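Summary for the steering committee. The consortium agreed at its last meeting that each partner would contribute one worked example illustrating the joint modelling workflow. Our contribution is presented below. We chose a case with several input lines so that the handling of multiple components could be demonstrated. No manual editing was applied between input and output; the record is shown as generated.
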Amino acid sequence: MRLSCCLCILVALALLPGVLPRGTLESAAYPPEEKPGERNLAIVVNLNNPVENLSTPELRRIFLGERGHWPNPYGRRITLVMLEPGWPERAAVLSIIYQMSETEFNNYFLHGLFTGEVFVSPKTLASPEGVRKFIFNVPGAIGYLRESDVDKTVKVIRIDERLPDDKGYKFHVPLR
Amino acid sequence: MIRDTSFTFRSARLGTVSKKETIQKWTTGAGSWANVPWSVFSRYSSALLLLLVFCTVTVVGLFAIRDLRRADLEEQNMFTRSVLSLHRIAALQYQTQETRRSTLYALSTADSNLHVKYADQSREADHLVSEGIAAYLANARTPNEIDIGRRLQRDWSAYLSVRDEVLASILEGSTKEAVDLDLTGGVQSFDRVRHDLAEIERVYDQQASQQLASVDAISRRTILRVAGVLAITLAATIASVWAIQRSRMSGAIQLAKLQMEFVASVSHELRTPLAVISSAADNIADGVVKGKDELRKYGAAIQNQSRQMTELIDQILLFAATRNQRNHFVMRALPVSEILHSALQQTSGLAKASGFCVELEIAPGLPLIRGDASALVRCLQNMIVNAVKYSGKSRWIGVRAFLSDTELHGQREIQIAVRDRGMGIARLELPRIFEPFYRSPAVVAEQIHGTGLGLSLSKSIAEAMGGRLTAVSELGAGSVFTLHLPVVEDFQTNTDEHL
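What follows is the complete predicted structure of the assembly.
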């Protein structure tokens, strides 16, 4: 009994870095200097995209790949952009929007593409800068960035009529 | 006959003119350019020719230098413009290719990160192209260049629109769609851009050719000018050397001719009295002369002729001594009247024999002059003898001494003027009468004897005394020869001087 408990604890400890968001342990040990908007997760689209606001369910449908195109007259194909696994932003999105784990997320899209339920699988970029540039180049792209990583090349949309700085904004991300 | 009178020195034939005006008009060596005789031009022809050559060569040389500088500047500008143009067009061509290359490279991978990287490269290159086009338009000068630049700008914008769609399709993962887009729209719009760039290159080529032709023309013109300058210089140098040689030869020939004439004249002048003396001596030796009175007459004739020969030889020796600068003048303060009376006494025999009336006027209270008495007397003698010889039919000579209104080198001067109403001297001859051995052709034609040394000697003496000798004349009316001598202000007597 004791031995099995010890073993469980050891396994849990071993799996802990893989479960906890990146930087959590470090942040607990060495809290970084926080930049303004660093905790807010902004949903960003191309500058030409006329969409200004999405509801959370609409956002989820888009992120789940259940919508193929933006509404007319814009009508551009929706391209979802994700950061690579390991980024806190990705973990936050998986947690808040998808409410899935990595494995569930991967399985979902594999299954969805195979069955045709999902129109397009998300693109994976290595860095927030790559996400920004991708969205800048693709008219129908949508992605997410820390608010502090947003610049003039992409547009932040409201979620449930709320911008990242507004009270009641739901999407936050731990510090790196 | 010598008359001492205080008449107003006035020329009936010359007109009532001021001495200063007359002297200024006719004085040897002076005069307006309008009156300079052709002989002066011919004498200085070599110098004038050299001056002309120098001016011509300088002017043409300056033009040649200006052309060279212009050609050099044109070349530099052409080179700079050509280099910049080449650089500009090369950069444009490269960056346009880069834009397209980066876009198409994105087709070769499925990695979204690489897609973004190639998209970045393409946008960076297209930004440089846009800058290049703007720079080209800013430097465009002709309407054709501006038109091509604007067309390139439009075509490039059109291509970029297609490129953006192609990039978007590639990033979205729609490779086939991207390829179709590029084939249908991208290739054609890019070809138009390439065509515009080729046209710009042709325009630059044309401009470079025109500039090269312009530089070539300037260079050829410059070469021709330089060759012309060299040819002119060579021709003018040859002409100058020939003119100088000819001038020297003619001068030497002239001098030799004058000397021969002098020898002939002196020979004649000496032979005539010698003939008289010889004839008289023969008569006396042959016993033809009988009475004392006749003997006295022959003796006087021999004396007279001997004196003439002596005077002639003295004159020649004095001239030689003056030319060799071996004179010993005894300079002292002299009263004018003393030398005038001495000169008139020496020539009284000649004047009386020729029936001349000499009017003498000496202004009262004249200051002393500086000079050698015998030299000054000789000088005045020559002037009076000349007046007698060249009076023609006139039998009047005027001699006047007065204090001048003008000053000589800041000193007061006395003028002794000897005037005749004889044949006068021609305008062209006047500058030459003081040259040694020179005799006017008119005088030779009149068979008036002389050696051509008298005036030259008188001028040398006058200058040795610190003065000068001037002449005023009108052909057919008479002449006035004036001896100018400085007044003694403070002088030590009995001073020997080598002059």
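Chain A touches chain B at residues 77, 79, 81, 120, 123-126, 130, 133-134, 137-141 (CB under 8 Å). Residues 22-30 of chain A have pLDDT under 50 and may be disordered.
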